[in-house]
């Protein structure tokens, strides 16, 4: 039993911090908050913006000045802040995790 507990504890510590965050449905992503959303890339809007969709809706995701590192249809998890400006809701992504576990960190130079 002790061995099982230690294995579970080590596994939890080894998980990336990105994977331990609660996932927020896209429709519940509130302006001005940090969120983690999960879904599929619905559409690439331009080189640094795409639409992410889940069963609750769609939201724009901005990764600039980086280039979108995903393809339409790819399942991903995005962590970032929801812009509080008026207009369409948009997440400024800080990290993105691909389905294979690859973590992409976005560098903002401004």
UniProtKB/TrEMBL annotation:
It comes from the Bacteria. The keyword Signal applies. Keywords: Signal. Pfam families: BOF. Residues 1-19 form the signal peptide. InterPro entries: BOBF_sf, CarO-like. This is NirD/YgiW/YdeI family stress tolerance protein. It comes from Seohaeicola saemankumensis.
